[in-house]
Amino acid sequence: MPRPLRFVPEHSMVEVTTRTLHGRLLLKPSPELTELVLGIVGKAQALYGMTIHAFVFLSTHAHFLLSP
User: Fold this and answer.
1) CA-to-CA distance for 64 and 10, rounded, in angstroms?
2) Shortest CA distance to 37 belongs to which of 60, 20, 51, 55?
3) 64, 52 in Cβ contact below 8 A?
4) In 3D, which of 48, 58, 59 has the Cα closest to residue 14?
5) For residue range 10-53, what is the model confidence (pLDDT) as tens digits?
6) How far apart are CA 64 and CA 52, in angstroms?
7) How far is residue 44's CA from residue 17's CA, in Å, rounded to a whole number?
8) Backbone phi, then psi, for 15, in 5-degree steps?
9) Which secondary-structure segment (H or E) carries 14?
10) Secondary element (H or E) of residue 28
11) pTM above 0.85?
C-alpha cells in the first residue's frame, strides 16, 4: 500500500532517510564511493533544485536534510 501524499510548507526543511536493500552493508567507505556519492547528490540537486543542508552516508543507510 503506497504512502499518502504529504504537504510540505514552502521554505521548510524535511528529513529523508533511505536504506540499502535488506539492510546489507553495501556502502563501504572508500575514495571512489565518496566521489560517486558527491557526483550523484550534486546532479540531483541541479536537476531538482532542492537545497541540501546536510547529508550523511553510512554502510546501510543515508540521511538528508533538504528544503524543497
Assistant:
1) 18
2) 55
3) yes
4) 48
5) 889 999 999 999 989 988 899 999 999 999 999 989 998 889 99
6) 7
7) 16
8) -110, 130
9) strand 14-19
10) none
11) no
